[in-house]
Amino acid sequence: MSKSIDKALVEKIKENLDSVNQRIAQSAEKVGRDPSGIKLVAVTKLMPLDVILAGIEAGIRVFGENYPEQAAEKIASLDSEEEIEWHMIGHIQSRKADTVCNYFDMVHSLDRVKIARYLNRYAKEQNRILPVLIEVNLSGEKSKYGWDASSDEDWENLLGDFRKIAVYKNLNVRGLMTMPPLFEDPEKTRPIYKELTRLQYFLQENIPEANWDELSIGTSFDFHVAVEEGATIVRIGTEIFGPRTMH
Ligand SMILES: *Cc1c(COP(=O)(O)O)cnc(C)c1O
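A: This is the predicted complex of the input protein with pyridoxal-5'-phosphate.
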């Protein structure tokens, strides 16, 4: 790599990464799961390029970003020899859908039909299939994105939208994503993740033509709980890279 890399930062990231991976493995083993079935997405939102380069040097190959344009800029100037996977985990405005489609390998934050339509269109233009997760809001908090799934009496009403999305030929529905509210105690997220698993079963029964296997849950704060509750993808920033610096 041409850019000089902060060796101390690489060591720090490696250390943090080891610790996170160990804790993922411990939580998985606690409930009899194979830790290799859990993918770690390293979240670099608001982090400068140097941090991403150090992360790659530390062995990270899967990154998550929230802001399409900032991410596109970083990805475009990365110039890494490694095969890197980019996951979009933030809210997507319709006029950014083409950027997302250009730069990302997977979208976790599909939160309305309109965005699915846009992403499908751009993916089709690029002659590719884009894997997506459907974002649901299980707490009913107004500040959260995603389909409101806080009351299971309303789950039937989700089926229309989700069937529409399942039909898009250039999108590949792979499962669900949710962000719980900010709690003081990570144990408080457990009931929300249990509810997500119930919703997953409901969708497997009602929309079997789509695949609902993936559950993208768990951040620095509560990934141990998320892994115990069935996370197949965890999205972790702070515990790997430290507090976010760039604003
Ligand atoms: C920022 C963010 C994360 C990572 O949060 P940390 O607390 O830094 O681990 C995960 N998911 C989403 C959607 C985020 O916005």
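The CA atoms of residues 17 and 149 lie 33 Å apart. Residues 43, 45, 66, 89-90, 179, 219-221, 235-239 surround pyridoxal-5'-phosphate (CB under 6 Å).
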